[in-house]
Amino acid sequence: MKLEIDKTPSKIVCVGRNYADHAAELGNEVPKAPLLFLKAPSSLIRDGEPIVIPPQSERVEHEAELAIVMKERAKDIADDEDVFKYILGFTCLNDVTARDIQRADVQFTRGKSFDTFCPIGPHIETELDVSDIEVQCRVNGEVRQTGRTSQMVFPVEFLVRYISRQMTLMPGDVIATGTPAGVSQLHPGDVCEVVIEGIGTLSNPVISKPIQP
Ligand code: ZN
């Protein structure tokens, strides 16, 4: 079943370095436990809305990711519990990142949370086996990132269980599961698409914001 995305999440939990080849391309080791960070819910936009490059950054990049949308409040999920009963479904997410700011700040908050930096959609797919599906990013029709969810260091069930033990997940909360290799810079005039097998295509044009005098 396809559902509309009609809720603003209380939080967007992201997982860094969850594909070994992407960790390597940025010169990082694969973490021993999931590396978590948050994106501001105010960064969310829908399919078709523009990603706005802010004047503060000289290097904004795409990150195509499978996103989990929560159905039930989840706290301290036990090892033997069925994680999927807490999950509403899955969608495409673009974890847009100001890479220069992420590096300069060390903290990810600012570089990941500019307005428009979290395209999500086009809808939530409720019946999907996400254990081995293709995740792709195309810019102006050209494939930049390709990976399969089976390459994740920490798979979906593990991530939801792990995160529920660090913070309570609420209905509508979004978990971005990490990006495969191939991240690259976005420029005004580009069209960036996240394409996930069994879900569909999330497409957003890229524009720039003029510097305020
Ligand atoms: Zn990411």
Provide the low-confidence segments as ranges: none
Task: Output the radius of gyration.
Answer: 16 Å
Strand content: 35-45%
CATH superfamily: Fumarylacetoacetase-like, C-terminal domain
Write the layout of secondary structure elements.
Elements: E1 2-3, E2 12-16, H1 20-25, E3 35-39, E4 44-45, E5 51-53, E6 60-61, E7 64-70, E8 87-94, E9 97-98, H2 99-105, H3 109-112, E10 118-125, E11 134-139, E12 142-148, H4 156-164, E13 174-176, E14 191-196, E15 200-208
Describe the structure.
- By secondary structure, this protein is mainly beta.
- It has helices spanning 20-25, 99-105, 109-112, 156-164, and strands at residues 2-3, 12-16, 35-39, 44-45, 51-53, 60-61, 64-70, 87-94, 97-98, 118-125, 134-139, 142-148, 174-176, 191-196, 200-208.
- Strands 1, 2, 3, 4, 7, 8, 10 and 13 form an eight-stranded mixed beta sheet that branches.
- A hairpin with a 3-residue loop joins strand 14 (191-196) and strand 15 (200-208).
- It is globular, with a radius of gyration of 16 Å.
- The termini are far apart.
- The mean pLDDT is 95.
